[in-house]
Each structure stands twice: as C-alpha cells, then as structure tokens.
Amino acid sequence: MKRSLLRQQASRPIVSNVLRTLFFLTVATGICILLRMIDNRDTYVPMLFILFVFLVARYTDGFWYGVGASLAGVLLVNYLFTYPYFNFNFTLAGYPITILCMLVVSTATSMLTTQNKRQEQIRIEAEKEKTRSNLLRAVSHDLRTPLTSILGAISAVIENDRILGSEERLSLLHDAQDDARWLIKMVENLLTITRIDADENTRLYKEPEAVEELIASAAAKHRKRFGEPPLSVSIPSELLMVPMDAVLIEQVITNLLENAVLHAKGADRITLSVRREDSNAVFEVSDNGAGIPEKLLPHIFDGYFRQNYEEEGDSKRNMGIGLSVCETIVRAHNGTMSAFNKEGGGAVFRFILPLGEEY
C-alpha cells in the first residue's frame, strides 16, 4: 500500500511536466499556423519555438524536458513549416545549419534555465537550513529553562516535604504547573510550524467560519487562564464568515494574546478586534504597554531572536517562536501579518485573511 502511494506521488510531477511540455509545444505550433495564414514567410518560426522551449525549461523540473522540447521543436519546424510541407526533408541548402543552430540555442537555453533554477533551489534550501538551525538553538534554550524550574520545584517538594507548609507546597506546584503548560504550548507551536513547513505545497482544509464564534472561544480561553490585564473585544455587527482552518487561526489569536500578557510591559489593557476591509478580514491584538523596541521590529517574526533587554528570569518566555508560528499559519492561509507601535504607546499585531470571491 505504501509503495503504491509513493509511486503515485512520484508519478505526479512527471505527468505534470509532460503535460506542460506538450501544452507549450501545442501553443507554439498553433501560433505559427495562425501567423502563416497571415504571412507566408516562415522566418519567425524557429525563434518562436526557441521562445517556447525557454518557457518549457522555465516551468518544468529538470533538464530533459527542455532538451526533449528542443528536439520536438526541430522536428515540428521541419515537418510543418519547411517545404515540402508535411514531410521530413533535411537536404535543403543551408537547412541543416539552421536546424543545428536552433537545436543548440534551444538546448543551451534549457540548460541555463535549469541551472539557474537549481541554484535558486540550493539557495532556498540553505536559507531553510539556517532557519532550522536557529530555531533549534532557540528551542533548546527555551525548553531547558522551564524543565529546570519544574525539576527544581518537584525536588524541593520531595526533599522538604516534612517542613514545607501547605501554602509553600502549593506555590511550588503552581509554578511547576505554569511551566508545564508553557511547555505544552511550545510543543503545540512547534508541531504546527513543522507540519506546515514540511511541505511547501501544504493545502489547508479551509471552511467558512463565523468570526464571532472564533473570537468568543479564544477570548474565553484567554480570560480563564490569565484574567489580567483585562481583555476587551470588538467584532463587526454583521455576520462575518472567513474561510480558514479555525483551529489554526484560534492558535494564532491565543498566541498573540499570550504574547501581550507576557511581554507588553506596563500594559493594563489588551484589545482583540476584527473588522472587514474590502475583501479581507483584519484581525488585531493591541495593548497600551511600552511597545516594541524599533531595533526588534524587523526581526519580530524570525522565530529565533531573543529579547536581551528583558529580565533573565523571563527569558524562558521568548516570544519569537510563537510569533513565527503565527506568521507561518497566516501565510499558509494566503494572508499577511505585521507588527508596529501605536502613536499613543503600545504594540499592535495585525493579520489579514482574504475572504474569497464568494464573500
């Protein structure tokens, strides 16, 4: 069963590339036939086929599709657009040189295009590997701190069980519980970003969801866990349906709300709002705290930066990974995400999701 599935997956790119090659050759042939009806001269035919061979090399994977298109183009030019028509004839004066030049130019174009695509792919893979390495370093640091805290709290309870009062014991257990919850959240974020980034062609299963229900669910969970600072919610009066994976978008909202609680210094109010702008739904989480340092704004969604200006005791609460997860989820929804400071003070995290033509 697995081998059959793997064979099917491997055959899909081949079929797609063959169909694209045939499509471009068919279009080139059709254009040449139409132009010959207007102008009997055939001097433009080789150049048009070279152009479409370039398109084949550009929009297919691998070198051989471009080479195959070059050979097929030479034969089509000979058979359809060289006298005597609808016959192969390689004996005309000067024709072998013309055909040879066309084949060399077409093949060289295909080779150069394929080489450029491979170099670009290598560059993209190198960037991905760099991001993975940075993310791994950040995760290693972020996981070590809460695990150490949990171990310390449990060890203190075990070793000092006889002398600890109930309040001290509960305080240590609550600290361990908070760290455990944070670890669970971190693992959920990592699983999400890994699942989406594992395949560039990941297709989310999106359904129209009522924003009102989504916001109510995220706000209820946030208030139950944190309570302070107070959360105010603003939603449109009319029903707003947004195509989305509701579980993932709720994760984005809860990540942003948690980020505001843990990192918005001096904030005593958090606002969660959503509105419609043209064919988009705009979500915002804002606070009235100290805002984001300007030097960090360009790297806010990198996923591995650390806020060195924060107290060391809060270093386990690195917001970079959570925000990177948010940006990845929104991008997978064909949306955009941004962060900026308000003029009156405080930070705003905004993400925009397309509503779709039917909305």
Comma- or semicolon-separated keywords:
single chain, 359 residues, 2 domains, two-stranded antiparallel ribbon, 8 helices, 7 strands, disordered N terminus
TL;DR?
It is an enzyme of class 2 (transferase). The protein is an alpha+beta fold and 359 residues long.
What this model shows, in words?
By secondary structure, the chain is α+β, with helices and mostly antiparallel strands. It has two domains: 123 residues, no CATH class; 153 residues, Heat Shock Protein 90, CATH 3.30.565. Helices cover 59% and strands 12% of the residues. It contains eight helices and seven strands; from the N terminus they run H-H-H-H-H-E-H-E-E-H-E-E-H-E-E. A five-stranded mixed sheet has the order 2-4-5-7-6. The protein starts with a helix and ends in a 5-residue tail after the last strand. The N terminus is likely disordered. It is found in: Membrane. This is histidine kinase. It comes from Yanshouia hominis. Keywords: ATP-binding, Kinase, Membrane, Nucleotide-binding, Phosphoprotein, Transferase, Transmembrane, Transmembrane helix, Two-component regulatory system.
Low-confidence stretches: 1-10, 306-316
Nearest-integer average pLDDT = 78
Sequence of secondary-structure elements: HHHHHEHEEHEEHEE
Strand content: 5-15%
Read across the widest sheet, the strand sequence of neighbours is 2-4-5-7-6
Biggest sheet layout: 5 strands, mixed
Transmembrane segments: 21-38, 44-60, 67-86, 92-113
Keywords: ATP-binding, Kinase, Membrane, Nucleotide-binding, Phosphoprotein, Transferase, Transmembrane, Transmembrane helix, Two-component regulatory system
Organism: Yanshouia hominis
Domain Histidine kinase: 138-357
